[in-house]
Each structure stands twice: as structure tokens, then as C-alpha cells.
Amino acid sequence: MKDSPIIKSSRKGKISINVVLGILSLVWMIPVLFAFIGSMKEKQEYNLSMFWDLPKQINWANNFKYIQEYSSVFQSMGNSLFYSLCGATGAIFFAILAAYGLSTLKIKHRMLWFMIIYSGTIFPFQLYLIPVFSAYQKVGLYDTKLGLILFYIAICIPFAMFVLRNFFMGISKELVEAAKIDGAADFKILWRIFIPMARAPLSVVFMTQFVWCFNELMFGITFTKSNEIKPIMATISTFTGNKPAMLVACAIASMPTIILYLLLNKNFDSGISYQSK
Hints:
This protein is mainly α and 277 residues long.
């Protein structure tokens, strides 16, 4: 029995999409491949050879030793992990409360409050540099871990609130009314109904905000100066001579975000299946 025209067109569409995705994946991986090759070279070999030339011998051990002895990469990585965890977790905490209030509770001028909070993502982030830098110097938060954590929390709230508010608005109002009839308070409804159903968006928001905080460079350079406070990207940006060692440091710095994706990947679809029950 021959396939119908609809099935044939569907197969052609899937093949076309897979081809496009394969090409995009290849284009995306080419710089990673060249960085991987460069990280295996010695400093002199890297400077004298083309970036696609294979190394004469693998030199990872010496590059790793250089990072340990002449940089504070591992300390800065610990700082970035701390900043990213606190920034993403704090932002999600406040975003959940704001999203629940703006989507479910009876609050006057909800759209106005939503626009005020969401306006934090409308303006270019460079606009915040000078005002926040001046304020931090006056109140003593410049070059402190608390200063970076507070800024990352504040800058991540608008996007997290936007995503969670849209998800919360799709939750059936009958569930909320039934919970209220049973005597559940607002915070209990949030904790027992909304948060379990929002595992997928919460995982996505946490991962995106964690990765943004971890890979952020501009504010990390501007608001810090000492090696004990600098995040990982600010430290890597100080590598000037040994490019292969810098590539090894970049590979090490990418590990936390890859591990986080592997840990949260199973939650991406769980909220959708939970809501459909």
C-alpha cells in the first residue's frame, strides 16, 4: 500500500529539518574543533602554525600545569559557581512570587506591574554599568562577592518572571478554585500545585540564568578588581601570552554548564506531562 501524499510530505519535511539541523550543528562545532586542536599545542607551536594544523604531540599536561601555577582559574571557577548558583536561585525565588501574584492573585494594575518588572530586559545591559558602578563604590559593594550576587539576582529576575508568568497563566483556574474550596491558602496552592507543575520551565530558567551568570564577562570585569573576587571569565580574559593554556582553561570552565544540562535535561518535559494529566 502506497503512502498518502500527506505522509510523504511529512517525511520530506522531517528530512529537510534534519539536514538543516545537521548543517547548523557542523557549523557550530567547527570552532570547537579548532579550539580543541589548539589546546593540545605548545605556545610556540601555536604561534607559528595555522589553527587547523594538528599538533606534533599532545601538550595538555604542560598547559594544565601552567594554569595551576600562573593563574587563579580554579579559584575564579569556584567564585563563578557560587555567583551563578546564588544569582539563578535568588532570581527564581523572587520571580516565582512575582509570577504567581501577577498571574493568579487579584492585584490591581497587574499589567502595569508586569511591565515595570519586565522593563529590566528592554534596555541594553551596558546602560547599567556606570550607575551601578558608582552606587557600588559609594555603598561599599564594589569588588565584593555580595555586590555581584545582588546584581546577578536583579538582572535575572525579569526574564525568569516573564517565563514563569506565562506558564502559570496556562494552569487551569479550576485547580486553583478547587484548592481554595478545600481550604488551601495562596502559598500552599503555589507550593503544592504551581511549583510541581512548573518543573520544566523552572529547569529551563535555572539553566539559562545559571549559564548566563557563569559566562558573563562585562559586569565581572567592571565590578571586580582583585583575583579573589573575579569570576572565571574575567580571569580567563587576562590570559595574554599563552593561548593554548587559555583554551584549556576555557574547556575546564565549560564543564559546569555541561554537567548542569545533563542533570536537568530529564526535567524539560516533565512539567508538560504533569499538566496534561
